[in-house]
């Protein structure tokens, strides 16, 4: 019974709570032309954001089955996967820590089909605000641009978790912000990967700062 409630009832409860919470929030694009450009961009790309900025963007990007999310095959991942599907995303079950090769292959196949993936830049375990190399490596293999994205909120709660998870207060205003496309050359060497990681970190941190 407990497993049934966790797997099949709780996702619907969370969906309703998140939907109406975020529905009450006013959205304000920082650069309308940047958002229009991304929304109308044809072809594959990697959308990436900091772990602490998931909450509102999870709602904002909903109903896009061409966006694929990588979710771990854990018990908590089962809950998140069902919630993501309710939000209209496509879901890949895998982990960046276990069976990483299999997960990476799945992401590469999706991008080569001309679809899009969403990757958390600092991963599921951090360190916080430090871009991991996986996103850059996949971009080089698939010739996919990396698009940084974030949101800011003046009225918010910042949790004392490792990622300083941000919850915008209901009826507040969120500023959505996109960065410039980051291009990664095919088969990047270690130096280029490090340079692109730094570029991504700086872009996401600047976007976050100007969006608050």
Strand content: 15-25%
Whole-number tally of structural domains: 1
Order of helices and strands: HEHEHEHEHEHEEEEH
SS-derived structural category: alpha/beta
Oligomer designation: single chain
Number of helices: 7
Backbone shape: globular
Terminal Cα span:
43 Å
Q: Major sheet: order of its strands?
A: 1-9-6-2-5-3-4
The radius of gyration computed from the alpha-carbon positions, rounded to a whole number of angstroms, is 17 Å
CATH top level class name:
Alpha Beta
- What fold name stands as the CATH topology? Glycerol-3-phosphate (1)-acyltransferase
Query: What helical percentage do the residues reach?
Result: 40-55%
Main sheet: strands, sense, barrel = 7 strands, mixed
Mean pLDDT: 89
Could you give the count of β-strands? 9
CATH architecture group name:
3-Layer(aba) Sandwich
As residue ranges, the low-confidence spans are none
Task: Write up this protein.
The chain has one domain (2-211): Glycerol-3-phosphate (1)-acyltransferase, CATH 3.40.1130. The protein is built from 7 helices and 9 strands; from the N terminus they run H-E-H-E-H-E-H-E-H-E-H-E-E-E-E-H. The protein has helices at residues 2-23, 32-39, 54-60, 75-86, 100-112, 133-142, 190-211, and strands at residues 26-29, 45-49, 67-71, 90-93, 116-120, 146-153, 156-158, 166-168, 173-178. The strands form 2 sheets. The chain has a 7-stranded mixed beta sheet with strand order 1-9-6-2-5-3-4, sandwiched between helices. The model has no long low-confidence stretch (mean pLDDT 89).
């Amino acid at each position: 019974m407990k497993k049934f409630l966790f797997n099949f009832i709780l996702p619907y409860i969370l969906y309703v709570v998140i939907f109406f919470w975020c529905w009450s929030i006013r959205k304000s694009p920082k650069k309308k032309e940047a958002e229009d450009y991304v929304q109308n961009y044809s072809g594959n790309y990697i959308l990436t954001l900091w772990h602490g900025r998931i909450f509102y963007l999870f709602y904002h990007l909903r109903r896009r089955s061409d966006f694929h999310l990588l979710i771990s095959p854990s018990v908590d991942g089962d809950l998140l996967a069902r919630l993501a599907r309710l939000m209209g995303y496509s879901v890949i079950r895998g982990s960046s820590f276990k069976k990483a090769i299999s997960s990476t292959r799945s992401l590469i196949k999706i991008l080569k089909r001309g679809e899009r993936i969403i990757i958390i830049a600092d991963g599921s375990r951090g360190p916080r605000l430090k871009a991991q190399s996986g996103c850059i490596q996949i971009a080089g293999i698939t010739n996919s641009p990396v698009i940084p994205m974030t949101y800011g909120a003046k009225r918010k709660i910042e949790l004392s978790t490792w990622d300083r998870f941000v919850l915008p207060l209901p009826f507040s205003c969120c500023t959505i912000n996109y960065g410039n496309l980051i291009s990664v050359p095919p088969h990047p060497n270690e130096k280029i990967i490090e340079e692109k990681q730094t570029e991504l970190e700086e872009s996401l941190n600047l976007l976050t700062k100007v969006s608050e």
